[in-house]
Amino acid sequence: MTALDTFREETRSWLEANCPESMRTPMPEREMPWGGRNATYANPDTKVWMDNMASRGWTAPEWPAEYGGGGLSKEENKVLQQELARIKARPALTSFGLWMLGPALLEFASEEQKKKYLSEIVKGEIRWCQGYSEPGAGSDLAGLQTKCEDKGDHYLVNGQKVWTSYADKCDMIFCLVRTDTTVKHDGISFLLIDMDTDGVEARPIKLISGASPFCETFLTDVKVPKENLVGELNKGWTIAKRLLEHERSMISGMGMGAGAASMGGMETVAKENFGTDGEKIADSSIRQAIADHKMDQQAFGLTLKRSSEEAKSGQGMGAASAMFKYYGTEVNKRRFELLLDVLGTQALGWEGEGFESKELAVTRSWLRSKGNSIEGGTSEVQLNVIAKRVLGLPDA
Amino acid sequence: MALVLTEEQTMLRDMAKDFFTEQVPVTNLRKLRDDEDELGYDKAVWAQIVELGFAGILIPEEHGGTGFGPMGLGIVMTEAGRTLAASPLYSTAVLGAGLILAAGSEAQKTELLPKIASGDLLTALALEETTHHNPANVAMTAEKSGDGFKLTGEKRFVIDGHIADTLIVVARTDGAAGEAQGLSMFLVDAKAKGVTVTRTHMVDSRNAAMVALDGVEVSADAALGSIGGAFAELENVLDLGRACLAAEMLGGAEAVFDTTLEYLKERKQFGVIIGTFQALKHRAAEMFCEVEICRSVVLEALSALEERRNDVPRVTSLAKARLGEAARLITNEGVQMHGGIGMTDDVDMGLYLKRARVQAQMLGDSNFHRARYADLGGY
After folding, report:
1. Chain A contact for B44, CB < 8 A?
2. Residue A395 belongs to some domain of the structure
3. What is the DSSP-derived secondary structure letter of residue A332?
């Protein structure tokens, strides 16, 4: 038996003993395990499962053990993920700390910062949000104006952030702030701010889907300890860009699966709604549109797979990875438009009687999907990035 | 790892790329066209292709081939597609060798495969009878006649029909046009009595022909594969053909994209490089995405064939449908982005544009394969 087999066996029996039964069922959105100081748990098992996994560092399996991570190798983590999938376990922790900030801290933070913040993230103790965009700095992110002044023993921050995900529920925010107004990219710093500090106010923004996952965050004379600066002063843009890569890969992966997965396959619904001609969906244009979409999805999935195989075979991330955010989100948007066509009036309910919950979920997810090609860099920005960095087309 | 090339496959690709780039550039096709060459391919080039082992790439070593399999064949087709190389590779090394390997008797394999590998036998598949690919839609009849069969009917769009020594003819021994049952394949000598082959001059300057069979007598041992059950044997090799066409189309699309991208970096208007215009940048980036998607689906189709997976029909239809659409987009954009000179015969864009449309129709266009993909998905 190889060491990996032993690891699999141990992992399997540990999960068997430590993953509560209710954590092996599909997860309703209100039971998402975001963690944080003010977390409430609709299902107490959520907290048990999070703590059990965190005790082994398995909420962040590949982070070094000295920072609270699992210290697993890639191969071991793959085994862990397979075993989690085998028992259909829910994620133990969903967190921007895990997906976005953590990887950036591992690369750029000081030893003290890593020790403190990473272990908090692993345990789900602190819920993080991202303070990047501003009312005047969307696609042109580096045009951000939130002012950060050196006041000797602390920084003083004034400005406004927008599209801060769940800021009203978060404990800390990682922010891009302007520390030099005479230059653009080289005047930006990366700062960590406690949301409980005086002068920080988060107001939820209501979206077309009816949900309010984003906030406006106002920063008024906020005093921030100097040790909360990550990396060097005025070198924040490098960190920001790296973090955006993590964010883009997170968003491009969101497309497959989520939301309408519960519709049981749109071809099945189409057969019910349009009738059949033998095995075929009777409406040929809907049938073609579904086939087109499924081909798009399969082709995109194959491209993700090819890129990961290229990476494993030591060819580095292939050029194909540049297109993932753009292509994945566009395919996802088309998927929801097609679902609307397939469901007809049943996809047009807002709430209440007459609609199944999964139908209402499609409507809301369709509206939410419009944001996929805007957040984390618009599709247009992604095309600019491909044109410049991959194709080498010159700037104007 | 199915979607990345092995070291051996990478060497094959590099060898093929060097060969086609240096020995068979696009000027080779232009010369054949402008000289109104009777053969429509260059015998010296074919001899070199044979010498490199590409003609027998699918054929096992015991029958005189190099046994590289579908992936190797697809890699060579991509490189051939990049320079629009005109040769009997598709008709003979893909379809001819493929059909004889899949359906041939031991005697047929022993006799014919070494001749294909050595370049001494050229074949052509005589399948299509209508304006659109539909392998079941065969009306040509094969009646029992003594110990053998008598073939009557007309075929069109027979690729390399006028240069083939042996025609592989799909005819009906039973049933009616449109039915999968009752199809049979026969090896017919192109010079046999009652065979009339008429070359058709196609828009891509490559070879195709109409083939009329007027009571052509063939012996029983001319049958390739089972009598009445050819459809299944044929479909599998058609999938090989589709994947190889997709691979060839990928080479063409890559060449057009690369050339167009270079042009965007050189051409100046309004005092600036036109590649600085966002209207063009975004379209170039979209094409890049398409090319990347195309690479993935072609590799997947070839891998499925290589591994004899049961999703071969599905992924070859995916590849052929996608490449049909992508090659249309990219060749159209190639012409458009070159502006006025894109319309001239001096620039190669038009040659790629024409070739892409012919390739798209061969063995099923995107509509055909989209419908097949849906059928296979059970909807």
Report:
1. no
2. no
3. H
Do A394 and B289 lie within an 8 Å CB cutoff? no
> Do A35 and A145 sit in the same domain of this protein?
no
For A325-363, what is each residue's pLDDT tens digit? 999 999 999 999 999 999 999 999 999 999 998 899 999
A394/B3 touch (CB, cutoff 8 Å), yes or no: no
The answer to whether residue B192 neighbours chain A at the CB level (below 8 Å) is no
The per-residue pLDDT for A243 is 86
Among A303, A305, A307, A388, most B C-beta atoms within 10 A, so best to mutate, is A303
Q: Are B2 and A288 an interchain contact pair (Cβ–Cβ within 8 Å)?
A: no
pLDDT digits (tens, 9 = 90+) for A79-118: 999 999 999 999 999 999 999 999 999 999 999 999 999 9
- Whether residue B183 contacts residue B176, with contact meaning beta carbons closer than 8 Å, is answered with no
Contact B91, B160 (CB under 8 A): yes
| CATH number of the domain residue A80 falls in | 1.10.540.10
Contact B204, B41 (CB under 8 A): no
Nearest residue to B290 via CA among B327, B316, B259: B327
Find, among B238, B371, B355, the residue nearest to B301 by Cα: B238
Residue B269 to residue B281: CA distance in whole angstroms: 15
Contact by Cβ (8 Å): A149, A94: no
- Chain-centre distance of CA A196, in angstroms? 24
B282/A contact by beta carbon, under 8 A? yes
The pair phi, psi for residue B159, each rounded to 5°, is -65, 130
Count of CB atoms situated within 10 Å of the CB of B271: 5
ipTM of the complex: 0.94
- B322 Cβ under 8 Å from any chain A Cβ: yes
- Contact flag A384-B300 (C-beta cutoff 8 Å): no
- Looking at the structure of chain A, the number of domains it has is 3
d(CA A127, CA A104): 16
- Closest residue on chain B to A386 (Cα): B285
Question: Tens of pLDDT along A17-58?
Answer: 999 999 999 888 789 999 999 999 999 999 999 999 999 999
Sort out which chain A residues have CB atoms less than 8 A from B296's CB and list them: 299, 302-303, 305-306, 320
The distance of B291 to chain A (nearest Cα, Å) reads 9
Structural domain ending residue among the three candidates A96, A123, A150: A123
**Is the separation of the CB atoms in B209 and B200 below 8 Å?**
yes
Q: Do A384 and B278 lie within an 8 Å CB cutoff?
A: yes
3-state secondary structure at position A228: helix
Minimal CA–CA distance to A365: which of A285, A257, A267? A257
Å between B233 CA and nearest CA of chain A:
24
Q: How far apart are CA A34 and CA A129, in angstroms?
A: 11
Contacts of A300 in chain B (CB under 8 A): 293
Structural domain harbouring A111: 3-123
CB contact (8 A) between residue B379 and residue A303: no
A248-253 own/partner pairs: CB under 8 Å, 24+ apart: A248/A324, A248/A325, A248/A376, A248/A377, A248/A382, A249/A321, A249/A324, A249/A325, A250/A99, A250/A100, A250/A376, A251/A325, A251/A328, A251/A329, A251/A372, A251/A375, A251/A376, A252/A324, A252/A325, A252/A327, A252/A328, A252/A329, A253/A328
Instruction: Indicate the residue among A68, A93, A123 that finishes a domain.
Output: A123
Which domains does chain B carry? 7-120 (1.10.540.10), 124-228 (2.40.110.10), 231-376 (1.20.140.10)
User: Are B73 and B244 spatial neighbours (Cβ–Cβ below 8 Å)?
Assistant: yes
Task: From B91, B100, B372, select the one nearest B245 (Cα to Cα).
Answer: B91
Closest CA in chain B for residue A381: B282
Q: Assess contact for B356 and B364: CB atoms under 8 A.
A: no
